[in-house]
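quick one, two chains, predict together pls
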Amino acid sequence: MTIPLPPSAPLGGGARSIQTRVPTVSQPAAPSRLHHSTKNLKRLIDALSPHPAPHLLDVGRLCDQNITWLIHHRCKVTVDDQITPLPPPPPPPKVVPAHFRDRLSAKEETPVPIVVEPDHPDGLFDAILCWDLLDYLDPPGARHTLLRLAHLLKPRGYLLAFFNCERAATRPATLYRIVSAEQLDYEPLPHAHPPGRAYENREIQELFIGFDLVNSCYLKNRMREILVQKKPAPRH
Amino acid sequence: MTQSVQQSALIGQSILFKGELTGNEDLIIDGTVEGKIDLKEHHLTIGKNGRIKADLRAKTITIIGEVVGQIVADDKVELQATSRLQGDIIANRLSIADGAHFKGSVDMERKAEMVKPAVIHDEKLHARPPQRAPLPV
């Protein structure tokens, strides 16, 4: 943004004093702990209602409020925080001049993707709450992680994932607290490293190739909520 | 003469206990225990230096150290910031502080089972004859 400079007052001898104001770059305000609406959490709970005691895996940040809320909605909850132990995202790759590229091996150029593989028996869970775990992973790591999570689901099990689609400002690490089936409390975590990825819609669609889409909604706060269902086993 | 302050038993940091531990008072464990701990109607605290590989049962359980095992509390389980728990929790109430590490499942379905024995006990109390009223002066 360009701030117009005020007209400078003429000094003796015709010299002009240039008064400059340092343009203030508006920092994105750290999001306060505010209520935000959620559309797919209620859809997930409603979808699980036919189950007498659905078993739900929460791979997001540990939150006793969420555990208590889910249990009061007849869920049995297994928690396995996969976000907190993740390393900070790698720095962006340096631009390598063309005449140096052939000196670098392919191994140096392509970092090993971070993969999350929760250790639980296959086919145990009726649903998995991913929250924004996938925003911490690159596409290859996210695809591998979703493949592993699909194995943990029962046939036609559900998976709920959040994506931050706001590229302009960096959203801090966030703890999502369930207030009700229609509301979440976004609590910023200034001491935790933020997610390093903002997926585009096309990339999100490619991640969930192995799932059937139940609902995808783009919220006013620029978060995308994806609710998917594990594809049925192919009939032979 | 009643005790105004209930003192807790203490297992110190240098103590290693293997086996089944039961008692009728509050207990603080700052050592190493392997096996089973059962303190019905009392409070169990796993201290900062506590290293437990056991199933725990108490009225309320506070974890500050490390526990691997199943946790059953008639009332509340509290995980403080330095706690590390790997195991399942069965309790009516749960509190997890920021910084706590927990991996396992949480269930409150045994609430009905926990209440049943207490209801039977109350019925036996009500069956006792009422105390006599004081005689008028």
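The longest strand of chain B covers residues 32-46.
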